[in-house]
Amino acid sequence: MADSPPSSARYTQGLATRRAVLGDAHVDRALANETPFDQPFQELITEAAWGNVWSREAWSKRERSIVTIALLAALGQDEEVAMHVRATQNTGATRDDVCEALLHVAIYAGVPAANHAFKIVKAVYAEMDAAGAKAGEEAE
C-alpha cells in the first residue's frame, strides 16, 4: 500500500472537483479518516470518479448531480444519496431537479426505491433547512 497520496494531474484535478462538489469539510474528514488499508480506494475514487468523470466538461456539475442522485437512489445507497443531496448546495441542482430525478427512479427502478429515497431526501432537506435557519439566527 502506498505511503503518500499520488501527485498525478488526475488526482490533483479530482481532489479539486471533489472539494468543489462535496465541500472542504467533507473531503477533509474523509482524508483525515483515511488509513493505509483504504488509501488505495480513496486514491481510486479521487482519480477515477472525481478526476475523470466528474471533471469532464460535457455535463455541468448540476447535471452530474441529478444523474448521480437518481443512480444512487435506484441502487439503494442511502448514505450516498444523502451526501449528494447535501452537495446540491454546491452543484446547483435544485429541489425540483431532485424530485424529477426521483420520479424517474420510480418509473425505471421501482416505486419502493423512489419511496425510500424521497424519505431520505426529505430528512436531508429538513436538516439543511434547520441548519440554514440556525445560521440566519446567529447572523442577526
List the helices and strands and how they pair.
Layout: H1 9-22, H2 24-32, H3 39-53, H4 61-75, H5 78-91, H6 95-108, H7 111-139
Helix pairs in contact: 1-2, 1-3, 4-5, 4-6, 5-7, 6-7
Instruction: Look at the helices and sheets and give the structural class.
Output: mainly alpha
Shape: globular
Mean pLDDT score, rounded? 93
* Strand residues, percent: under 5%
Q: Which class of the largest domain in CATH terms? A: Mainly Alpha
Q: Give the full name of the CATH homologous superfamily of the largest domain.
A: AhpD-like
- Compute the number of helices: 7
Helix content: over 70%
H/E order of the elements?
Answer: HHHHHHH
State the distance separating the first and last CA atoms: 50 Å
CATH topology value of the largest domain:
AhpD-like
Oligomer: single chain
Relevant terms:
140 residues; AhpD-like; 2 domains; globular
Task: Walk me through this protein's architecture.
The protein has 140 residues and is mainly alpha-helical. It has 2 domains: 58 residues, no CATH class; 82 residues, AhpD-like, CATH 1.20.1290. 79% of the residues lie in helices and 0% in strands. The chain contains 7 helices and no strands. The radius of gyration is 16 Å and the shape is globular.
